[in-house]
Design a protein that fits this description.
Layout lengths: L5 H17 L3 E6 L11 E7 L9 E7 L2 E7 L2 E11 L12 E7 L12 E2 L14 E2 L9 E8 L2 E9 L8 E6 L4 E9 L2 E3 L2
Parallel strand pairs: 9-13
Antiparallel strand pairs: 1-5, 2-3, 3-4, 5-6, 7-8, 9-10, 10-11, 11-12, 12-13
Length: about 200
């Protein structure tokens, strides 16, 4: 398999396995869970199985040597990193995200879905991960904005002036008030100025 000592070969195989199964950019093995005395001197095949995407996963390692196949269940201690967008500089609350860079971030610091565009929900410090816990997608329309309410039936289209009762994004349901009748309705935001009513 290689000229590496058996324990090193098994550790390298674990790093490769964890990177692939966890889509990690970096993996450090803090403790492998396999002792030298458990291994044959000549290993020609190593296979890891199990969920490696935790700090202390329970994994199974199998290896072939001249004495045959051996399998051992171990609980190695791993440190995982993922390459995600991070803030280049401090970003005040309510500020559009204008620039980011990729950096390896420890898994324990990752909370949400990585994001590269949007508006900061709170102060984000330089180097902090940009994810859905601190960045929100801006709304296409805010509460109390004027819109055109539209109802279509075949070739007939009726419009009326309206006002939004909540913020929304294009494609989402939004509550509005018909300014002519003062009746509250719900429709779908078609663009930043139009709400389609059922």
């Amino acid at each position: 398999m290689s000229d590496l000592p058996p324990i090193s070969a098994i550790e390298l195989a674990l790093v490769d396995y964890a990177k692939e199964t966890c889509t990690a950019s970096r993996v450090d093995v803090r403790w492998i869970g396999v002792e030298e005395r458990m291994l044959p001197a000549d290993i020609d095949r190593i296979a890891w199985t199990g969920d490696a995407c935790r700090n202390r996963p329970e994994l199974r390692v199998s290896f072939n040597g001249s004495a045959g196949r051996t399998s051992v269940t171990v609980r190695p201690q791993l440190a995982l990193w993922q390459s995600v967008p991070v803030a280049i500089e401090d970003i005040p609350s309510g500020t559009p995200i204008s620039a980011s860079q990729l950096a390896d971030v420890p898994w324990e610091k990752l909370r949400g879905t990585p994001m590269t565009t949007g508006v900061s929900k709170r102060l984000i410090k330089a180097g902090d991960p940009l994810d859905s816990t601190v960045v929100m997608v801006p709304m296409d329309i805010e509460r109390d904005q004027s819109v055109s309410l539209r109802v279509s039936r075949g070739s007939l289209t009726i419009t009326a002036p309206g006002r939004t009762l909540q913020s929304a994004r294009v494609g989402e349901k939004v509550k509005v008030i018909n300014e002519a009748t003062r009746v509250a309705l719900e429709g779908t935001l078609i663009d930043s100025q139009t709400v389609e009513l059922p």
